[in-house]
Amino acid sequence: MRVVIAEDNALLREGLVLLLTSAGHEVVAVAGTGPEVLPALLEHRPDAAVLDVRMPPGFRDEGLRAAIEARAQIPGLPVLVLSQYVEESYAAELLTGGASGLGYLLKDRVGRVDEFLDALERVAAGGTALDPEVVTELLTRRKDSPLDSLTPREREVLTLMAEGHDNATIAKTLVVTERAVHKHIGNVFLKLSLPPSDSGHRRVLAVLTYLNNR
Predict the structure, then answer these.
(1) Starting at the edge strand that comes first in sequence, how are the strands of the sheet with 26-31 ordered?
(2) Fewer Cβ in 10 A, N or C end of the chain?
(3) How many CB atoms lie within 10 A of CB 193?
(4) pLDDT tens digit string along 42-66?
(5) Could you tell me which residue ranges the Response regulatory domain spans (predicted)?
(6) What are the residues whose beta carbons fall under 8 Å from the beta carbon of 97, sequence distance 6 or more?
(7) Residue 6 in 3-state DSSP?
(8) Cα-flanking dihedrals φ and ψ of residue 34, to 5°?
(9) Nearest one of 68, 72, 75 to 53, comparing CA atoms
């Protein structure tokens, strides 16, 4: 996998390079400031980009803006955003253009090597990888919506779906059968007025798109 990394913290940036190369991936470019990000992405057109939200010179949303612009010019460009905190507005804005090939993780996830690499590979394959805290923010910020009709178990299933987990993992996490998970998913889509589908990432992307574009 060819990857572009955009991170202003030199120690974390070099750590990411080492981690990815050790895992067999190729880091084709690194960026330490906001203005460097978009040119690197457009030049290399990587299989995935790992981007910090706040970068020099303004430390506001330079990384996010570059990601949004790059996805406008390279539709479907897989982007995994790293942030120090849950910044709900940034997560929601990034998802506005569609949820396919997008991830948003808190930086402490990078310390969990297997989880980070799994998330990056899911995103590169067109899937979704949202930090559980980000999912919680996206779910709870909406009031008086069809989400209110979900049962606690259906909400748990929806949350795990949004994080990018498959049926088997959801069943294991909730200690239920896969058949029960399939039934809960059907109920979730029915209550959200979405076509009931159990076909991989499409169900996750449909839910995330719905949550973002209400």
Answers:
(1) 26-31, 2-6, 48-52, 79-83, 102-106, 128-130
(2) C
(3) 8
(4) 999 999 999 998 899 988 888 888 8
(5) 2-122
(6) 68, 71, 72
(7) strand
(8) -55, -50
(9) 68
